[in-house]
Amino acid sequence: MSGDVERLGKALAAEHAAVFAYGLIGARTTGALRSKATQAFDAHRARRDQLRTFITGRGGRPAEAEASYSLPLVPSTPADAVRLAVQIEAGMTAAYLELVAGDDAALRKYAALAMQEAVARSYAFRPAVGTAFPGMPGAASPASSPASPPASPSAPTGG
């Protein structure tokens, strides 16, 4: 189970960073955007606290949050805030991906649900359909897919 504790620790580190980032977004936005950021902040704080409990329950010691985190951008406009929120949620999806491969079935389910929530939050900030399989080499876009399947070779005729 030490592998699960390590995976939980990675997810916890990501949650610490997300809480920091959403605090900054919330401080720099107003209205509906601030409301979404506050909801995301609360969701990440709850996940952070759950992860701490999971780690201590498995005999590990959860890492504390850093005083500050380096962010890909500091939001100065609503568009920047949305861009940062979408990046945070993409990072959270990646952070939980390793936990989905863990040893404990309950943790795998927990991580899968956390990933689903991250994708839903990202969509709430910027409704857009992303790449079906991001990072997959040679993934064809729908526009480049053939309209009909290739013809099958004809069967030899007897003669």
TrEMBL record:
Domain of life the protein comes from: Bacteria
DUF4439 domain: residues covered: 9-137
N-terminal signal peptide: none
Region described as Disordered: spans on this chain: 135-159
Alphabetical list of Gene3D superfamilies matching this protein: 1.20.1260.10
Organism (species): Nonomuraea roseoviolacea subsp. carminata
Pfam families: DUF4439
Protein name: Uncharacterized protein YdbL (DUF1318 family)
